[in-house]
Write a structure and sequence with these properties.
Blueprint lengths: L2 H11 L10 H18 L4 E8 L6 E2 L4 E9 L2 E2 L1 E2 L2 H6 L13 E5 L2 E5 L6 E9 L18 H15 L3 H29 L11
Parallel strand pairs: 5-6
Antiparallel strand pairs: 1-8, 2-7, 3-4, 3-8, 6-7
Helix pairs in contact: 1-2, 1-4, 2-4, 4-5
């Protein structure tokens, strides 16, 4: 489905196929707004960031699309997340140590490793990313097919809100809320199965 399809379906559902009450640019804005919301809450845009990290690396800039990390490893060893405050509490110098890497933290749109690795290695981060806004009506929606109808429903909801059709608004709002909750629930369990975190045990070599 592309944005032209979304506009056609929305205007048909609200009975405004000649765009007397709503402009297609409004529908474009509403659709992009909901797509961004789904990218954040349903976590469908799952990406991998991989970079070399050295003893002199001043942190690595997070990807522009970054929303939140799901798993971070250094040389294939899973790391725990920490913060500057937690490092202060344990007396850890966030930049001076060169021991075995055990943690990562975020600061200033950068990801940092702690302790700083003595040798160069590979940092991998599995993360949820935003999607680019759609500006072309002929462009396909940047999300899985199963969510396309939800974008249409969300746009109809926004139209009801704009036209102050409160009875229809409440009914649509309940429907969209339930659908979004189901999407988030399903994606959460899928993500858990997709990104298992298995750390080596004490007796592992």
């Amino acid at each position: 489905m592309n944005m032209t399809d979304v506009v056609r379906q929305v205007t048909r559902l609200v009975g405004d196929e000649y765009e007397t009450q709503v402009q297609k640019t409004d529908i474009l804005d509403w659709a992009n707004e909901y797509i961004m919301l789904l990218a954040r809450d349903a976590e469908f845009n799952q990406l991998l960031f991989s970079q070399q990290y050295t003893s002199t690396t001043p942190g690595l800039p997070l990807p522009v699309q970054f929303i939140g990390e799901k798993r971070v490893t250094f040389n294939d060893v899973p790391l725990d997340k920490t913060s500057l405050t937690e490092l202060d509490n344990i007396g850890g110098n966030p930049i001076a140590s060169t021991s075995e890497v055990t943690h990562f933290y975020m600061w200033g749109n950068y990801i940092w490793l702690w302790p700083t690795p003595a040798n160069t290695g590979t940092l991998n981060m599995w993360y949820v990313g935003a999607v680019n806004a759609v500006g072309d009506f002929d462009a396909d929606l940047p999300l899985p097919l199963i969510y396309h109808k939800d974008v249409v429903r969300a746009c109809v909801l926004r139209f009801r809100e704009q036209s102050e059709d409160y009875e229809q608004l409440q009914a649509m709002n309940d429907e969209v809320s339930k659908l979004t909750a189901k999407i988030i629930h399903d994606q959460t369990f899928q993500s858990r199965e997709t990104y298992p975190v298995v750390k080596p045990g004490p007796g592992d070599g």
